[in-house]
Amino acid sequence: MEYQTLYRKWRPQFFEDIIGQEHITKTLMNAITLNRVAHAYIFSGPRGVGKTTTARILAKALNCQEGPTAHPCNQCSNCTRITEGFSMDVVEIDGASNRGIDDIRELRNKVKFAPSEGKYRIYIIDEIHMLTTEAFNALLKTLEEPPQHIVFIFATTAPHKIPETITSRCQWFNFRRIPLPKILNKLKIITESEKIEVEMSSLRIIAQYSTGSLRDAENMLDQLIVYCGRKIDFSSVKDLLGEIDEEIFEDFLGTIINQDISKGIEIINQLLELGRDEAQFIKGLMEYIHNLTLVKYCSPEIMESRGIFREDWERLKKQSDLITLSTLLSLIDELAEIEKKLKYFIHPWILLEMLVVKFAKEKKYDLKTKPEKEKFKLESDFSPEGENHKHILGIENQSTSKRDKEIKQEDKAVKVQSGKKKEKEKDDLPVNKGLDYINLKEMFPLLLEKIKKEKISIYSFLNLSNSINLENDKLIISFNPEYCFHKESLEKKNNKLYLKEFLYKETGQNFNIECKINQQKGIENELYKEKKAKKTDNLETQEINKKEKAEIVGENSMIKESLNLFKGKIIKE
Question: Residue 190: which of 171, 217, 163, 165 has the closest Cα?
Answer without folding.
Answer: 217
